[in-house]
């Protein structure tokens, strides 16, 4: 449609107001009578139009190629519940906002994607596997409670790390030391109610 005002459910129409067809001259005259140059007139028009729209069907959600999904603006998704702005392929997501390109098994996260898998409570994380409670982790694996890490592996509580592995609080450990200390930290956090 073009040159239509306050109309709903029309396709390819011109010079309509509240779905009523007018000639071009009548349309322009009626628009002037609506006094769209004042705030109060626009607010009245907005209110009337909202009520008018209730009589016409509208799309509940924008979902394309979705299987067992809920949310809005979903494309190529499967088993994605309470998700918004997800462009797949995406599978097994829950409560995710803004995810793109080959994501899987992500829970309660936002702004994530590009080959991301097994993320929990993350933001701004991409291209990796097994991130938890982290922000801006990229191209990494086994990242917990960390921020701004890139190309890393097995970090716990680290920030601003690049190409690091087996670190806790930005301190390097051997793999065995890391696993033992990480297990003790997680158990302590569970005991004090800080874990998760």
Topology readout:
Elements: E1 2-5, E2 14-17, E3 20-21, H1 24-33, H2 39-53, E4 63-100, E5 103-120, E6 126-132, E7 135-138, E8 141-144, E9 147-150, E10 153-156, E11 159-162, E12 165-168, E13 171-172, H3 175-192
Parallel strand pairs: 1-2, 4-5, 5-6, 6-8, 7-9, 8-10, 9-11, 10-12
Antiparallel strand pairs: 2-3, 12-13
Main β-sheet description: 7 strands, mixed
Q: Which blocks of ≥5 consecutive residues have pLDDT under 50?
A: none
Number of discrete helical segments: 3
Strand order of the largest sheet: 4-5-6-8-10-12-13
Average pLDDT across residues? 94
Radius of gyration: 26 Å
* Beta-strand percent range: over 45%
Helix content: 10-25%
- What is the number of strand segments? 13
Quick one: overall form?
elongated
Category from helices, strands and their pairing: alpha/beta
Query: What is the straight-line distance between the termini?
Result: 51 Å
Secondary-structure element string? EEEHHEEEEEEEEEEH
